[in-house]
Write a structure and sequence with these properties.
Layout lengths: L2 H8 L4 H4 L5 H9 L30 H26 L13 H10 L5 E3 L5 H6 L8 H5 L8 H4 L10 H15 L19 E6 L6 H12 L4 E7 L2 E2 L2 E2 L11 H5 L3 E5 L3 H16 L5 E6 L18 H8 L3 H11 L5 H23 L19 H15 L6
Parallel strand pairs: 1-2, 2-3, 3-7, 6-7
Antiparallel strand pairs: 4-5
The protein binds thiamine diphosphate and magnesium ion.
The site of magnesium ion has 6 residues, from strand 4.
């Protein structure tokens, strides 16, 4: 099926597929009124922890899997809160919180297969967790001792990218390569992708969608049917800029203009994020080309530890989103349905405390890197110009008799 047909095939009854173009005033009014996410929002677990069904994106999930997702989210939140506190104590130069985005990241991260590739921005600590990156490996970047502590190829998880939207181009190129290398479209007669078929997932924010790089990535991926899931975490703010200053229409609807499907999912619902991400990755592995997922969410903490959100957002808004907490709804569902007992919750709490201790101890004991560390890993191969600069710098520092 060609890409434009596929857009409507995903949601034939989608109001967005048939509606007349609204006026700018209607769109802005709609955006402001969609704190619930709008009619197209895919949700499987309500904020109250009630399981609801969805005609296109429902999944079966074993209680053990749900408990594992809960554990992931609690531990990821603990890494985030602990690292934030370490920055406040002066042990990290900066921290980039994810508070409230655990479900979006764990749902997407757990949908990936080991051979899939992921390209993060700078906030994907939850996806890193799912890719098997030890949380201590996140700390060097924020303590200023390292540029990235993991091997992107081994972990199938790119290095953090601060330049907004840049990773979308990297991901588009990578996914095009997967397609050219024949890593997609090897499905059996029932349309199930081969066990070693691959896809790529790229993570970025709502603000990033205003960047030229993101537009270009959408175009390249679309025309080459690249196996790329664009995963946009829409926390409704790009630092102090609200989404209505970024777009005249809900972000997932932008996909239509590029000729691939766009789905808006409740980003605070780990089940829905898992289900929609699995579907999107399968589409990619089948060779059907890219998908845009807009995970509609809210970050309950600041943009970074250098930011003061009380200068631009209302505390009412934060209070409203606390009621939609991604972890609490899973806890309520598990407890209410007898799928987890008190001992389970205590055990996760205990594990979380141990992780916090390990993180703190690791952080304060990171050795200072040697001064010439800055020259390492700049190029894949030795570079004579850089080598001369390194020697000059070491020679200069030697003039201080080791006191630098
Ligand atoms: C090319 C570029 N322009 C500007 C910045 C400064 N900047 C850092 S984060 C940010 C906002 C990004 O917002 P969004 O994409 O919504 O991601 P969020 O931080 O909300 O997850 C900006 C403008 C940057 N890092 N790179
Ligand atoms: Mg944002």
């Amino acid at each position: 099926m060609s890409s434009p047909e596929r857009w409507t095939a995903a949601r034939p009854d989608s109001p967005a597929a048939t509606a007349a173009t609204p006026t700018a005033e209607q769109v802005i009014a709609g955006l402001r009124a969609t704190s619930e996410g709008g009619a197209d929002l895919v949700q499987l677990l309500t904020p109250e922890g009630e399981r609801v069904t969805h005609p296109d994106f429902d999944i079966d999930i074993e209680p053990a899997q749900l408990r594992a997702l809960y554990r992931d989210m609690v531990l990821v939140r603990r890494v985030d809160r602990e690292s934030n506190a370490l920055q406040r104590k002066g042990e990290l130069a900066l921290w980039v919180p994810l508070l409230g985005q655990e479900a979006a990241q764990v749902g997407a991260g757990r949908a990936m297969r080991p051979q899939d590739m992921a390209f993060p921005s700078y906030r994907e600590h939850g996806v890193a967790w799912c890719r098997g990156i030890d949380p201590t490996d996140l700390l060097g970047i924020f303590r200023g001792t390292d540029h990235g502590s993991w091997d992107p190829i081994e972990k199938r998880f790119g290095l953090y990218t601060i330049v907004i939207g840049n990773q979308v181009l990297n991901a588009a190129g990578y996914a095009m390569g997967q397609r050219f290398d024949g890593k997609v479209g090897n499905s059996d007669a029932e349309g199930n992708p081969a066990a070693d078929d691959e896809a790529t997932m790229c993570f970025f924010g709502d603000g990033a969608t205003s960047q030229g790089d993101v537009h270009e990535g959408f175009v390249w991926a679309a025309v080459y049917d690249a196996p790329l899931v664009f995963f946009c975490q829409n926390n409704q703010w790009a630092i102090s800029e609200p989404t209505e200053r970024q777009s005249r229409l809900p972000l997932y609807q932008r996909a239509r203009g590029y000729g691939f499907p766009g789905v808006r999912v409740d980003g605070n619902d780990v089940l829905a994020c898992l289900a929609v991400s699995r579907w999107a990755l399968k589409e990619c592995r089948r060779g059907n080309g890219p998908v845009l997922i807009e995970a509609f969410t809210y970050r309950m903490d600041a943009h970074t530890t250098t930011d003061d959100p009380t200068r631009y957002r209302l505390s009412d808004e934060v209070e409203e989103w606390k009621l939609k907490d991604p972890i609490e709804r899973v806890r309520a569902y598990l407890a209410r349905n007898g799928l987890a007992d008190a001992a389970f919750f205590e055990q996760i709490q205990e594990e979380s405390d141990q992780l916090a201790v390990r993180l703190r101890e690791f952080c304060v004991n990171i050795p200072d890197p040697p001064p010439d560390r800055i020259f390492a890993n700049v190029y894949a191969e030795a570079n004579p110009v850089l080598e001369r600069q390194r020697e000059d710098m070491l020679g200069y520092l030697a003039g201080f008799g080791g006191e630098h």
